[in-house]
Structure formats: C-alpha cells, structure tokens
Amino acid sequence: MRHYREILQKKFAEEYKKLNDEQRKAVDTIEGPVMVIAGPGTGKTQILAARIGKILLDTDALPENILCLTYTDAGTIAMRKRLQYFIGADAYKVNVYTYHAFCNDVIQDNLNLFEKNSLDALSELESIELLKQLIDTFPKGHPLKRYRGDVYYEINNLRSLFSTMKKEGWTPVFMNEKIDEYLNSLPHRDEYIAKKKVKDFNKGDVRTDKIAEETERMEKLRAAVNEFDNFQNLMRKKNRYDFDDMINWVIKAFEENKNLLANYQEKFQYLLVDEYQDTSGTQNRLVHLLINYWDSPNVFVVGDDDQSIFRFQGANVENMLEFASNYQKNLMTVVLTNNYRSTQPILDVSKTLISRNEERLVKQIPNLSKDLVAANKKINKLTNDPQILCYQSAKEEMMDITNRIVGLIEQQAEPGRIAVIYKENKYGEELATYLRLKSIPVYSKRKIDVLIQSFSKKIIQLLRYLNAEHDIPYGGDEMLFEILHFDFYTIPPIEIAKLTVEVNNLKYKGEQTSIRKLLYDKANKPAQDLFDSGIHEGLKIFSHMIEKLIADVSNVTLQELFARIIQKAGVLSHIMQSDDKIALMQLLTALFDFIKDETSRNPSLDLKELISILDLMQKEGIALPMNKITGTDKCVNLLTTHGSKGLEFEYVFFAGANATFWEKKRKPGGGYKFPDTLFSSKHASSEEEELRRMFYVALTRAEKHLYISYANYRNDGKELEPSMFIAEIQEENNLPVKNINIPTEQMMEFELLNFTSQAPEIEHAEEDFISSILDKFVMNVTALNAYLDCPLNFYYRNLIRIPSGKSEATEFGSAIHYALEKLFRKMQESKSEKFPSKDEMMADFNWYMHRHRENFTKEAFDRRMEYGDEVLRNYYDKYIKQWNKVVAVERNIKGIVVNGVPIKGKLDKLEFNGKEVNVVDYKSGNFENAIAKLKRPGDKDPIGGDYWRQAVFYKILVDNYEQKDWKVISTEFDFVEPDKSGQYKKELIVITTEDIDKVKTQLTEVWHKIQNREFYTGCGKQDCHWCNFVKNNKLAIALHDIEDEEEV
C-alpha cells in the first residue's frame, strides 16, 4: 500500500507542478461543492484526473468511493486513460460511468426492485412501429391526424418529444400547466401588441391573429403531449422499455426507497460530473439525489456553456445556474481562462463570435469573466491571424484545400496534425475524393447507412422480388427488369429489352404473360433443331436460379433463404471478383447480422414481415448503421463540427462556411416548439445561438493556423452567401477576405473527379429491333414529359415499356377518377340530366377501392376509405350546383398529326360552351406539390412545368381534332383533394399563342431526337433514377460531360 501511495504521490507532484493557480484551486478544494467553468483548451480532463488523485492522497477514501459521471463513452475512456497514468490498475476501481451505464448497474444490482428483468429494450424499429400504431388510433378531428401524403408525418416529432419529456422529467400534467401558463401570457407580451396599424389592428391593439396562430401550434404540442401515456402503455403491452426509461426508474426507486438511496450516498463519498452543461433534467435530478444527503456535498462539476452543442432548444445554462443557486453559500466557483491550445489571435476571433450569444453564464452570473488567454509558452508569441478564404465554387474550395494540405505535408507537417472541419458528412465524403486523387491519406470515422448503399439495395431488391412473386405470382416484373440488369449477372441489356418488348406485344394481343413466365417458358423450351441455341445462356441460368429461390421462400427459414441468395444468386462470386471485396463483404455481413437480430426478436419472422420492416425503415429514415473507419489517426483528419469537439490540431481548415450549411439550413420535420414557461433562465436558447456555439467549437480546435473558407457559387452555378458568423467575426476583427482563384492548370489536375455529374450512355439496341418499336410509336404528353426529364427515362418507360405496378396513392387517385367518371356518365344517361346522389357516387368509389384491394395494406385501405369518403362528399357539396352538364368524359383522341408528329391523348372531361371547350383534368394528391408543375417556362425552369405542358398539349390535340369543330380556350386542373387549409382548388390555364409555339417546338424537336435515336444517353442529374441505375450496374459504355443545351 505504501509503495502504491509513493508512486501516486510522485506522479501527482509531477502533474501538480504543471497546473496554474486556478487549476490548483479546483484540484485542492476536495471538500464541498465546486463548479469549474472550463473553456476550450484549459485542461479540463487533466484537473478531473488530478482531483481524483488528490482525494486518494489526502483522504481515507478508496477508489471505489469515487463516482465520476461523463456524458459519452468516449469521455469515459479518456478519463480512465488519464487516471491510469496516475494510479495504475486501480483506475479501474474508480467508478467512471455514463449515466445510462450507472443506472444499468443500479438496476442489475437491485433487480428485485425493478421490472427490467421482465422487459426487453425497445429497438428504434419497434419504436416506429408502436408510434404507427399510436397514430392509427387517433380519432377523427385529432389535431395531428393526417389522411394523405405522409400520414405518419408526426412519427419523428413524437419520438423526439417523448424522449425529451423522459430526459427532462416532464410529465403530461406539468407540460399542460406550462402550455396554459404560456397561452394566458400571450396577450400581455410585447411581441403580440401591434406597433403600428396593420390589417384590422390599430397601434396598441392585441394581435389576436398572431395569438390564434401561436395557440394552434401550442394545441398541436398539447395533443402530442397527451399521447405520452398511451405510448408508454403500448410499450408495456409489448414488454419493452427504452433507455430513457432507465434513468427515470432509478430516480423513482431512489425517491421511494430511502434505504436504497442511502446505500449509494454512503458508498460514493465524492462525485465528479463532466460536461455538466449537456446533462439533461433527469440526469441532473439523479446527481442531486446522490448528493442531497449533505448540506455541503463533495460534488465537483465541470462544464462550458459556450460548448453546449448536445442540448435541445431552450435549456443551455439551466443546470449550471441551478447548481450555482442551490449551493451559493458554500460554492467554490473556478473559471479556467488559461488556454494551452491556441494562439491569441485565434482566441480573440472566437471570443468576438461567442460574445454575441445572450444565453451565457457571463451574462447571468455577476463578475464572471471567461476571456481566454493564450498560455502555451511554445506558441503564445505567434501573431499570425486566422484567414478567411473565398472561392468561386465548392469544387474550387476543395481543390485549394487539397493543394494546401499537399504543400504542408511536403514541408514536413504531420498529416495527423492537420484537420478539415465541416458541418455535414456529405462535404467530407466529396472532399475525400479530392485528397485521394493526390494520394493524401485521410482518417474519417463516420456512420453509414447500410440500407442506402448501392450493393445493399440490390440484395434488398432481390428479397422484395422473391416476396412479391411468392405473394402474387408473376406480379413483380418491374423489379425483375432491373434485377436482370444487375452486375451480379452478365446478361446483355439488348436481350432483356427484346424479352420485355415481346411480353408487351403478347399482352397487347390479349395473352396473359409476364417477363418471368416468358423467361421460364423460353429457358425450358426444347431445342427445335441442332442450330437452335434458344435464349441467351445468362437468361437461362438466371431463370433456373430465381425459380429455385421463389420455391425456397415458404420452405426454409429467413436466415437460410438469405444464405441461399448469397450462394446461389451470384452475390458471393460477384464480391470475390470485385476490387472492393472487403467493403462489400462488410455490407453483406451487416445485412445478415440485421436479419439474425430480427429473427432473434421474432423467431417466426417471414419474408413478407421482413419486407414490411425494410419498408418502414426506408419510409421513416431509420438507418442500419455501420461504422466506416477510413485510415488511422496518423492521416489527415476529416471531421464534422460535432465530431471535432474535444480534439485539437496544428492546422485547421474550417470549410463550407456558407449560410446554406449553417443558419439557412432547413431542418427536417420541424418538431414542436416548446413554450418558454418550461425554462427558468431569462433567455431561451435559440437555434441561432446553438449554431453559433457549434461554429465556436470548430474555431477553437485550431492551435496555430486557422483557415475559414466559403464559396460564392454552388457547383451547379447557383449563388451562395457566406455564413452570418463570418460577418460577425469581421465586424470586430481586421480580417479581410482573400479571394482565391485556382489556376487553370491546377483545376485540370482534378478533372477526373467530374464523373459525378456526367450523363451515362448505354449500349445501342439493334436497329431492326428499335425500328420495329418506333414504327408504331405515337407521341403523347406523358412520353414528351418523360423525354424532357431524361432520355433514358423515356427509353425505359415509353419505348421498352418496363412493367410498373400501382402505388397506394395512384390507385386511390384512380378510384376518385372512376367515381367522377361514373357520376357524369350517369347524369348523361338519365332523362332528366340529374346528377346521382352523393351516396351513389360513394358507392362507385367504394366498389373500385374494394375491386383493387390488393394494392393497399390493411391500414392504408382503411385510412384511404375514410379519407376518400370525406374529401369526395365535401367535393360533391362544393360543386354540385356549379357543374357544367354539357360535357364529354374520358375522351380518347388519336390520329392527329401536328408538324409531322403523330400525337394522341386521353382527356378526363371536356366542358362545352357552344364550340368552345374547357379541358378538365382531375388531380389527386397534394396541391402544394403541384404548384411548380403549373408554371410557365422561366429562368428557374426554362422548359416549363409538366402540368403547364399538359394543358397546352391538350389544346393542340383538341384544336387539331378534325372530326369535331372544337376550340379549346383553357385547360383546368381540378384538385379533388383539398389543400392544407382545407380549400378545394381549381387552376385554370388560359393558353397563349406563345405557349402553343413553345410546346409545338418542344414536341417537334423531341420527336426528331427520338427518330434520330437520341435516347441512349441520360440527363446526368444526380438524383435521376435511370442514370443511377445505369451507373450502379455498370451498364454505361461512355460518360458524357453535361453541356448547357439550348432550351428545347
């Protein structure tokens, strides 16, 4: 024991000498409450470890009598390493925990007091499933109930809300009280008093319109809050708990069982809490329970409010203010301002930025100063200022950063001491390609979603196809067409195209067939003679393989089926022949592990249920995460701002500092706004202040050299602006922007990276084959829109005509069309020209829905039936007295030739006023999503929207219909589903001569391009399905630079 203390004493003395006066004060004060406010680079981890050493030297406490709570697993590891240096193996006896790990140990040590032993942890996937169940139970009129679009839109908002309520310890009763308190205060708040006459309000009036808007937002929050207990009940019925529950269980046990609490209070004589600014309400409550036995507890909290980047809105300094208030009589407050990381110019720039935040301790605790001073004697005499660099484009920014890093390494800078920090992983992924081109080793650690990787998507597509064919034989042709093109196989695309066209021709003749059926028949057809080789050998092999796998679906377990796909479907052989075999094998293993986990949770899980799980994950954005680590820490570091916290580098390139990545970045989902009555601090922390803290964290990673950069234009030419935080820095610092122009010869070195936006060209089909299709081709507006979107889209959808199934939304739209067609036909057929009753119209809708029941899930069918009943009845009531009875419905017009182009079309309804016609096209779906499609050509969309083009096309079609002397004066889009405000919309497009000329030009030019076989090269857009399909399956024979084409 003496030897151990001698070693500890020696190491402590060595470290203690290195401490400054404020650090020593924090270490020496081992009795009573201490709060340390530790700015970046001030030695926070060092004093935590030194303080534990001091406790062990100066008291009778044992290592196991000390409890240290940290925010993350990484913090736990860092603390343990530092302790090991001081006290050797006994470092493992000190209780260093994350909050969840501590609570888990309390539960495991006292299982008889908890229900956890009878419950299983709730997975993210199960959480989504339960929230779907919850939303399905919402009654009619519920503020959060939706009938169309993303009906489960609130899932992520509810998840976030319930998690926050658990983390903060907010009950529904408490939150309802705070909502009421907030709403009652609105008429007395300055922001709701008119400052001048506006609308119907005079200066000084209460803005009741604004209060109504805010009340609506709060009532949505209230409705969500009131579902909390229902969600908890659903979890209990499923015997599940989530990790946020664990802390609440322990808190409840401590509050109800005084002996249990006393045991832990006696055991832990000293408590240390790291990253105190980020602790949640329940974590803070746990800390207080462990120390409330003493009036002056031995508790030591360390944090920096300016680096709080993990809390939710509005709760940045709550904990630290409350701690200072609770122990103000005995509290020792230590502020560490000596920074041992950065030069003074970097610290000064960082200070001018963070000083703009209102939600800071220095603005709420009197006489507190946090001005950081450069104290590292090796570098504190350096005076080089941070640099602000501006580039023409994001590409040029990445090029120059790459070249600068190359230069640093050539000057013997260590790659591991260089970091590029950015807001989002996407920036780092693209930058890595530039660095690799220059053979610069990079280190990045990030989570990727296995499910969205190209290779994984192909495996999942195979599973989907097997499920579809097992469920309804010969119904998965759309998927099969793509699967046949997978690079697992070597089937020539022309052979697949011929097969598809033959299927379409047979169907046109009335034969019941499909790609799978015809493929099977041909693969098993005996040879006619010695010279008959039958279909391509690759197609034969594929047919035999897929038929065996379809038969396996109901005969083997899910795990065995997956194993057979790997072995039999060409997956494994493809991996082994790939240059990227290690990465592909990791993805395959992650997928297999996922299936094993799910079958472990539900041993009877079948393929259909697995596909439902995958569908849910895709829809709700649930990732199947896999850590992807590239390089080692000896390489150049690529980091997000969040990932950089706690790290330091000699050279920091803070890239992509544009407003679009920072303050103007739109957050998905939106979430619920909390009333400020929930918080005790004067200023609720805003999203802007949170972003400013993140920006500050990035700046303060730099030791000697800091480069902040942004681009003037996006790679697609759209103008960008720098982040407002750069302007804030420049206001108080003489940091001129340096405009960087990349020499042409340097730009040429990176030309190889332009492949990301190149248009793929596929192999040309045999001329006889393609001619036979084009000879019968007649242009319609769908084909015209498809070609203008992407020529490959037109090739696959309109020429080869790959089979396509009907989605829930499409089938629902068809049911509405059918009901309205029958409504007008029955009116025309009646002698009195009287419209049928509303109930009769609904009967036709219901008949169609039931007739096509197979295209809906049970939940979707019930929801669409309820929604259809509501929207169609309201639609009927709104227009029954306005409808024109002189109409033609579902009119097919063909045999028309315009400028040498044969055209045809099917029109929903034509309304007549003599010879003048208003063409009506019914639209179902979200009106807001249609607005862009209705627009005429303009700067943003030089070819115009699809619906505008459809309107003009219909006029051209009808006006050239020689059998009738009709003249179209307008086209009207009748939206049968209401907009967000519940209003039914009709958009009338009065067509001008310029409109007709424009569409005729488009029609003629596209027709000539089609006749010239200009459909083998895609559009090259990054989000184009068919361009990506060609690239991902290595079907491209060439890649073409995208040129700015003349407007069509």
**Overall pLDDT, averaged?**
88
- Please report the distance between the alpha carbons of the first and last residues: 87 Å
Number of helical stretches of at least 4 residues:
40
List segments where confidence is low: pLDDT < 50 over at least 5 consecutive residues. Answer: 1044-1048
β-sheet strand percentage: 5-15%
Q: State the share of residues found in helices, binned by percent.
A: 40-55%
Net shape: globular
Strands, count: 25
Strand order of the largest sheet: 14-13-15-12-16-17-11-18
* Largest sheet composition: 8 strands, mixed
User: Given the helix and strand composition, which structural class is it?
Assistant: alpha/beta
**Whole-angstrom Rg:** 34 Å
Tags for this entry?
1048 residues; six-stranded parallel β-sheet; eight-stranded mixed β-sheet; 40 helices; single chain
Report on this structure.
This protein is of the alpha/beta class and 1048 residues long. The chain has 40 helices and 25 strands. The strands form six sheets. An eight-stranded mixed sheet has the order 14-13-15-12-16-17-11-18. Helix 6 packs across helix 7. The radius of gyration is 34 Å and the shape is globular. The N and C termini lie far apart (87 Å).
